Amino acid sequence: MVGSMKRRALKHGFILVLALAAVFLSGCRTKQAAEASAVPDAPAPGRKLIIDTDTGADDASAIILAARSKNIELLGVTVLVGNVDLEQSAKNALAALELAGSDARVYKGSSENADGRTIEAFSVFGGDGMGDADLIHPRRSAEEKDAVEFILETVRQYPGEVEIVALGPATNVAKAIQRDPETMKKTKMIWSMGSAGLGPGNASPVAEFNVYADPVAYKAMLDSGIPITVVGLDMCGGEAQWTDEQFDELAEANEIGKFVAASFGKIREFYAANGSVGSVMNCDALAMTCVLFPDFIQGTIQCHGSCITAPGETCAQVIFYREGFTYDAVSNDFDYNVTLVSQVKKEDYFKLYLSAIR
Ligand SMILES: [Ca+2]
């Protein structure tokens, strides 16, 4: 049962990833990235980002979005197991960065979750997480330095400035918190693509894949005292899904678009085979859009986020207790530790993405 739940979670996660990846995949081995214009209107020039990722196609599309932005400094990319195994995760991140014209370095982290389990690397994004479209030929390699050490060194170097965009399981982040909690409290913000938000899950009816892959780590992150903004699955469906016609637009846009489109090929096949024809989710790039374009966010709710770690049907569910609401039957003495994104401009999502890669 756990296996089937995981598969479902992965499938949904992958579906999102695939949408982005498809745009990429159609064949981008050249460097037209340099010709594309940078992400417009990103605020607060000089923001310092680390992307933490289990690089499947949707992660790769998010990495490219950040790498194309003029107004953020991408300090590094830390990778871990999740949608794919650790080595593939590193290769996919490197390929995405190179395509986008970024020299940001890649650091390898966790190959198993906080319980010591090896996360099942089933991917609806294809065996390489990128649509099995022969897209991944990075020229560079990952650094020797461990991902967790890189995160800690970077936060020490820029106290109060570093924003971590967590697009996979929370394992690397939780290890950094465990190793040096005081340093990690100097993180400016963790942006988490994780949880079902206020909607249904994909790993199980109540759990989303990134949390399901390592609920112990997710709980450690929520309980850390670090400011956290969560973008859940409930922000990624409906009008935010990328349609077949939009994938065609991507594939025709430039080499980056071709790459993303091709990387999503397997995800689109998976969606279609499972009765969802015509569009797919891409949660990781949507979360990155929230990071880069604050006006894209139309509503947030301050919450206490509580992650269930006990085995059973509700494992990896994240319960959000809303600030300002008095619950009748539970304590209301909460630490409101999460800003939950509750509304985004879904109709603008694809347009923003396409503009950013051009
Ligand atoms: Ca991911």
Low-confidence stretches: 1-40
Mind telling me the C-alpha Rg? 18 Å
Give the full name of the CATH homologous superfamily.
Answer: Ribonucleoside hydrolase-like
Chain-averaged pLDDT: 88
How much of the sequence lies in strands comes to 15-25%
The spatial strand order of the largest sheet comes to 3-2-1-4-5-6-11-9-10
Indicate the CATH architecture: Alpha-Beta Complex
Provide a count of the helices. 13
**Extended strand count:** 11
| CATH class category name | Alpha Beta
Shape assignment: globular
Mind summarizing the main beta sheet? 9 strands, mixed
Order of helices and strands: HEHEHEHEHHEHHEEHHHEHEEEH
Q: Provide the domain count.
A: 1
From the helix content, strand content and strand pairing, which structural class follows? alpha/beta
Give the % helix.
25-40%
- The end-to-end distance, rounded to whole angstroms, is 44 Å
The CATH topology comes to Inosine-uridine Nucleoside N-ribohydrolase, Chain A
Which small compounds were modeled alongside the protein?
A: calcium ion
Write a short abstract of this structure.
This protein is of the alpha/beta class and 358 residues long. The protein is built from 13 helices and 11 strands. The chain has a 9-stranded mixed β-sheet with strand order 3-2-1-4-5-6-11-9-10, with helices on both faces. Strands 7-8 form a two-stranded antiparallel sheet.
